[in-house]
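On clarity, I found the account of how folds are encoded harder to follow than it need be. An entry of this sort, consisting of the sequence and the corresponding backbone structure tokens, reads as follows:
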Amino acid sequence: MTSDPGTTMDKLVERASAGSGARPLVYRQALATRITHWIWAISLFFLLLSGLQIFNAHPALYIGHQSGFEFDNAVLEIGARRAADGTPQGITRVLGAEFETTGILGLSGGDRLQVRAFPAWLTIPSFQDLATGRVVHFFFAWTLAITLLFWLGFSIWNGHLRRDLAPRGDDLHNLPREIADHARLRFHRRREYNTLQKFSYLMVLFVLFPLIVLTGLSMSPAFNSAAPWLVDLFGGRQTARTIHFLVMLLLVLFFVIHIVMVVAAGPINELRSIVTGWYRTDAPATDEKEA
């Protein structure tokens, strides 16, 4: 079975609305898609904040298999030091370049400054507790991975992957126009995803999600003993940790852009789609004019 349970309803609603020129309400998101979307959103929230808790235990990233005083392979370091006048400063070093980040990174806490890479309000738990951070992180990491496999199986079964996400021949042709439209905040509300949505969702679901899961597994000593080839694939545990951190930053960037687009395109309509499945599209006359 490859048909969407909302396909028949879509046609009825579209036909009923076409004569009056009203904006049709179509069934856009299946129940499984909506459930997995919110599970991912919750999982990524806890993964981010617990991951920063774990990072605070050793606030530096390296390239290679090893790290330590005898190595000079750090690409990111966040810490604190005292200036020449004795004033404490938060310091962040990126690829050798040094920045003062007092109050944000390295040294934060308002009136009661604390030496910690990321501030207390940005970690779970807020106080330094590596063990609890690991427990929270691993729980939601497995939740994310299992939900991803469930989504993949369901999307193949009901045709969502082929019908809604797989790029078509005209998608690349439409890409420049859609980039220009999005830059001008002009949105075409249709049941199908536009080209930018397809490519961004595919990048997240088939590149970033698997990459963050695999780099996470490559940092596990238990998994290393079962599959030592994985850590070698990423060039060592330290490199895998760095890639893991960079992928996290890309996911945060995707989230920020995603929220901005939801607000700009009409938050009520977009939220209704991902909560109830129903989405209000442009009126037929508008589609014909823009086609």
Summary: Residues 1-20, 286-291 have pLDDT under 50 and may be disordered. The domain at 7-59+126-290 is CATH 1.20.950.20 (Fumarate Reductase Cytochrome B subunit). The CA atoms of residues 224 and 238 lie 13 Å apart.
